[in-house]
Amino acid sequence: MAKINEIMAKINEIGPKAAFLVSHSGRRNEPEGDLAPPAKDPSIRDLLLGSAAPIPVTRTGLRSFREGGYSVIRSKGESPAVLIFDHGPVGYLSIAAHGHADTLAVWLSVGNQPILVDAGTYKYHSDRVIRDAFRSTIAHNTLTLCGVGSSRPAGPFNWASKAKGRCVVVQDGPIARLVAEHDGFLTRFRLRHRRTIEFDGASQIVITDELLGDGDIGEVTISFLLDPACEARLDGSSFHVSAGGRSIARLVSTGPLSASITRGDTHSNLGWVSPSFGVLLPASCLLFQGKLEQPSVIRINLLSETQAQH
User: Considering only CA atoms, which of 164, 233, 197, 192 is closest in space to residue 84?
Assistant: First the structure.
């Protein structure tokens, strides 16, 4: 527990929702290098006059946590964008009891406003259907194939199958680039899901999804769950996202998929966020659906206050 608390203290500076780096899956994430501000050497003067607090150092750019299976991209500025990409195991150790089927999911926040979020846990035992729904792939910000998730639950804390994710490319620079894939569809569909993330470090994020292999490509659903404080409006193949009365982002699909929104749906159990145990809030779930016969390209444009007025 002491080690987990130490790691959490180091990664909390990354931004809102950074706690996903030690998530509901229970995975431990060892940073490549120290994320905490350097310690100040003690001196006699500090004992007499008191020690000045060290100036926090905020890292920007791309950071990869390979042991835990997460990568983080943080932009510069007073209200930085923080994108987290999950390319690791489903959960801790072989049983992954608290894991979710969220391989290749992303989370996104800007300043203090979360945009793309995790659905949470809600409850464990009282409702098997709800428990499975919150663990399912379609409840997370990633791709479902023919209604089948990347990992399939078997009871509230077990799995019938678990996807194995791997990071293929980690490339920092003016445009940070991450490529990862998983084998969760390989046995049943003879296909791998590969996701590429590109971020210019300011306002443009491109998410490309493709299915690789010799299997038949069926219907896919790519989900993006918004924070309950966000609202979404659909305009053709574009979503306009706002929070607090201000436009904050646009999501545009330039691939072959059609777009729709669901919110707080009791039939599909989509469009819900559980911010704490036993608490349930309706939230907009953005869906891109269709046959992925060519790569799906979804562009996220983060809007400044000036851009939001136009």
Answer: 197
Which value, to the nearest 10 degrees, does the dihedral of the CA atoms of residues 139, 209, 96, 129 take? 20
How many domains is the chain partitioned into structurally?
A: 1
| Within-domain flag for 133 | yes
- DSSP letters, 230-245, are EEEEEETTEEEEEETT
Residue 244 lies in a domain: yes
Q: From CA 116, how far away is CA 107, in angstroms rounded?
A: 5
Q: What whole-number distance in Å separates Cα of residue 303 and Cα of residue 204?
A: 9
Q: What's the pLDDT tens digit per position in 176-216?
A: 999 999 999 999 999 999 999 999 989 999 999 999 999 99
Domain assignment present for residue 176? The answer is yes
CATH code where residue 268 lies: 2.70.98.70
Confidence (pTM): 0.81
Cα separation values, 67 from 27, 28, 98, 149, 237, Å: 9, 7, 18, 24, 37
Cβ neighbours for 20, distance < 8 A, ≥ 6 positions apart: 70, 84, 86, 107, 118
Instruction: Domain of residue 294: give its range.
Output: 2-40+60-308
